[in-house]
Specification:
The structure holds 3 protein chains of 3 kinds. Chain A has 13 helices and 2 strands, in the order αααββαααααααααα. By secondary structure, chain A is mainly α. Classes of the chains: A mainly alpha, B mainly alpha, C alpha/beta. The A-C interface holds A 73-78, 148-149, 152, 172, 174-176, 258-260, 270, 280-281, 283-287 and C 29, 59-60, 62-67, 69, 86, 89, 157, 159, 164-166, 189, 191-196, 199-203, 211, 214-216.
Chain lengths: 328, 285, 342
Amino acid sequence: MVTTSPTYGSAGPAVAPRSFLSKLRNGDEIARLVTFVFAMTVVLLTVLLVYQLWINSALPRHKFGLHFFTTSVWDPVMDEFGALPFIYGTLVTSAVALFLAVPLGIGAAIFLAELAPQRISDTLQFFIDLLAAVPSVIYGVLGVFIVVPLMRTVIYPLINKPLGFLPIFKGPSYGVGFLTAGIVLAIMVIPYIISVSREVLLSVPRDQREAALALGATRWESTWKVVVPFAKTGIMGSIFLALARALGETMAVTMVVGNTPKIAASLFAPGYSIAAVIANEFTEATGPLYTQSLIALGLVLFLLTFVLNGLARILILVTTQKGSGVTR
Amino acid sequence: MSSNLRVRWRKLVSDIMMTMTGLCALISVSVLFFILGYLVYNGGTSINWAFFTQLPRPAGEPGGGMANAIVGSGKLLFAASLFGVPIGFLGGVYLAEFSGSLVASIVRYAADLLNGVPSIVIGIFAYSMVVLPFKGFSALAGAFALGVMMIPITLRSTEEFLKNVPNNLREGAMALGASKSQTIRTVIIPAAYRGILTAILLALARVAGETAPLLFTALGNPYWNNSWTQPTASLPAMIYYYALSAYDDYHRQAWAGGLVLLALILIINIVARTILARGIAVPRS
Amino acid sequence: MKRFTGLLVAGLALVAVVWAADSLLINGAGATFPNPIYTKWFSEYHKKDPKIEFNYQSVGSGAGIKQVTDGTVDFGASDGPMNDEQLKAYQDKHGFPILHFPTVLGAVVPTYNVPGLSGALNFTPEALAGIYLGKITKWNDPIIAGANKGVNLPANDIIVIHRSDGSGTTYVFTDYLSKVSDEWKSKVSKNTSVNWPVGLGGKGNEGVTGLIKQTPNSIGYVELIYAAQNNIPYGAVKNKTGVFVKADLKGVSAAAAGMAKDMPADFRVSITDPLGKDAYPICSFTWLLIPQKISDSAKRDSIKGFLKWMLADGQGYAEQLDYAKLPKEVVEKESKAINSVQ
């Protein structure tokens, strides 16, 4: 008996449409149905998550409206909640992290992609991938026991003595603070920048480099003026990816940022981030406005990372496709 | 000749800059080795047999261990896999073998969205979905949170690896009269099994170290967890609490816990990558 | 495939075996203030009756109040008594009230980490309020130096540390500050979570102690046992009568002595800044928050059994951990109140 499978297209002989029940007896339809249900579960979970975030943050939306984003008071006693200190802290710590991680990361990626022999490049990449797998609570522990004392005893005196007149370096050092959190975050996101940048650099077709070298460029000139610009969008993508990771990071930040919902110009001052305040205050937020304000913060964070991740993916895709498209 | 000088200068710049990139690589890798080394040293000197076999002691009393946290983490990961892996895997099968491109894009988009959600927000989600309706913190809630995080990685990787199985295998099976589901079950999945296994292991390694989603789902428990509807201790959460405390003995145990957790995750990662490096099991004709 | 199913079956078997255990787990969450004595009590009680496990999570009074109101834990714990609004919210949600049961008395002490100090410090109410309002910024400020003649205070900036989470300890401290400083009362007032003018936040008594230990020139407020167990210095505070008292069992008991006879029926009371030359001014009862109706009879009996044990044998463990025992009038009143838990 010939097994007819409508899903294989024009291969088999034409048959009349079968009833649903008889289709069901066919293992293929069951398989299709079952796997379809599971695939839809993924969509359902995602929709449910966004929905929950939205309706459970309705109170502050109605009460504060857009003022939620411009108020810097976080007062559970008076039921006044403003997101500004947390958005500020999240952005500042991430900015510091990128400021430190991007030059180091791209430099390392260039080295691994252009200079290092294949075996060394692969081995080092292997180790860097392991660095990306270290859980954040461990970075937090290392932050608390290494970076915080280091900040207080070495880094602060080093920077504050000569540059203490600048507003970003003013004031006492607590050990914890924006800069400390930024440093810990930088260590966490470097692996992402290195892996993705290295990959996009490697995908730049050889002829680009060879053409530049043939025209008399030095190694550096060929890299910096030809290869890197070619891979530019992909590298941007890696930076966005790293930024998305830094924005959402909870444990490492909450252990070293100082847990203070205040906006301060100095990098040595203690601060707060969206993820950290949710982690600290969610289980004790008494009263619906308090809880929902925290969830509203969660929604803000979610939207930020969502946009960044989306952009990152597009950029990386464009570069790697561009690279693979241009071959001879 | 000035042009010769200019060439020499450019060459010098080139050498300096390339050395700088090497320095960047050195610094980046050194940080890793420093972290590992410090953790191994502090963790290694802190680990003792009691750490693996005893329950935590009351606050301030030295001694005790994290036995219940280690088992608790194991149970959470096991349950998370039971929840997350089938959804991710079967969803991936659907995307690779059955779906049209519109549905596929929607599912993929949803998975990517889910993947990018910060873990603390997943914790909020699990709190409203499991803890509140079931009126209590539980290992189940924690497993739900971790399972949700495993889904996207499993789904995308399954789809990738199934798609990479060469078409001649499918056509060969078809020619022999196998139905679609038979082909998938007996030919395609076994061919891609290495990659899929790797993906599951990597997803596991990723959630093994997650602390934030457990803070308001599994809570904590100084005893052995006896029921899925009760709170449980977990290794990352214990490390977090102990590191923030003031007792020196708690700090010591936090280091030990950190070492154990890191070792676990690194081992899973290395195993996964070695499996993958051996290549897909299908020989090219 | 076969290997996988084999593993799956083994795993499920393990789950089934573990599920078969029959001990009773009762979950509670709340104050970090009494965490050392509570964990000690629950550990001893478990030795006495191995079938009963009390899981106490030291997450802060604020979280304790919220979780017991949400019904996600069986009991709560707080050193800031629930206010009328919170009590009403509980009653509205569950249909019956929640009861406060005092357990021990503790003291909130000002701990500090000032390198090179030659003696212990004395703090006046003005000094504490000024420091926490951000008006006194250096250790050698005259208001601090005035009470510490002969001690060489450095000219360093004071690093103020408070709680980042909702805390009963914060409630006690801000309750005291509100009584001794009108400016504090109007600007910040008392609560488990306030809008701190200055300082950085540590999570739990544990977190604040950890920060103080690691941060030179810092000051913070913690429950007495945390300072004592971790060997960090704490200062004496000038009480209402004008005497500088360093927190100890005598000082705490003296603070509660005046209140004991006038203990209200719901046990909610503040004993900060009392009169009496021996009294330590920043003390508080700490309470277990028990629902008046507990539907699970095994849990109800276990909780009531524990409360009875706590008022008798349990009190014996308090002093070795620097908590003061409950006055006997309170114990008597409370023993009767246990019966109201249905």
